[in-house]
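Q: I'm writing up a methods section and want to include an example of the input and output format. Could you take the sequence below and give the corresponding predicted structure tokens, formatted cleanly so I can copy it straight into the document?
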Amino acid sequence: MTAVDKTRRKLPDRKLTVRLCGPRGFCAGVDRAIQIVVLALKKYGAPVYVRHEIVHNRYVVEGLQERGAVFIEELSEIPEDHRECPVVFSAHGVPKSVPADAVSRNLFYLDATCPLVSKVHKQAMRHHRLGRHVLLIGHAGHPEVIGTMGQLPDGAVTLVETVERALALTPPEGVELGFVSQTTLSVEDTADILKALEGRFPALQAPAAESICYATTNRQEAVKMAAPGADLFLIVGAPNSSNSRRLVEVAERAGAKKSLLVQRASEIPWDEIGEIGVLGLSAGASAPEIIVNEIIDAFAARYAVTVDLAVTAEETENFPVMRVLRDVELTNADMAFVNGNA
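A: Here is the clean output for your methods example:
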């Protein structure tokens, strides 16, 4: 039995309404990336190497490690006698130099880059092919930004992190400009930066399609619906998850009195919560549903909980895994460590 849509009556003198956002949690790209590692383990056996965290969630990473995945930061960490083992590239995408390095080392690699991140790569490359200097709206150091910048030669991309940077940057003279953005940004923050850029560079060329992915937008819209009047808003996600951190900001902007990022129920600061009657709850795109249920159960142990759904969209997207893994059956049991038991 899951916690969702259940009314608990353990402590009737302390009633709590949980506004549970939908959509929440795994997006199609994250789900696909995790499936790739699980299926590779089933087909080829352990170890399967994974370059960087497959998605930004410690619980997911540890769950895959228990099944035989080995996480590395560089391909050089793979032992010589394991060169035939698969290595998976994370959902965030990688610079072109990484698959080239894999080929030079005769490694068998599986690229789990989210198709929507790959789309941004293609948008940036199209700008470059048309002779434009690329302005990338994003956060320095994020793996997705590193991967996108690594699709083009050094100096072909300028990173724009803030409105202040947009107002101060000096792009190359005599060259057309085109922009793309990281897929996991706040819609409002990106709009502000883009407004500043377009004010300075009216001829700035947009990508052929929106860069911020549907899942980021959908999760932010659901949080906006649930936040007004919430005494506390919890976002399930990791500190290094860009889209999760943005949801915390969105909740406070939209009217939640307080918003916090937590990875597990054990991180909830019970002594600091105070009296609350309405709790908003959502999860970043790399946070598993099993932890959402864990957190609802933790509140149900302390309050008489009623769950109200705040749903703004229905997501039906499904990104298939690569052909080499499609002959392996993926069962509910294989994914129960993140999805729970249906």
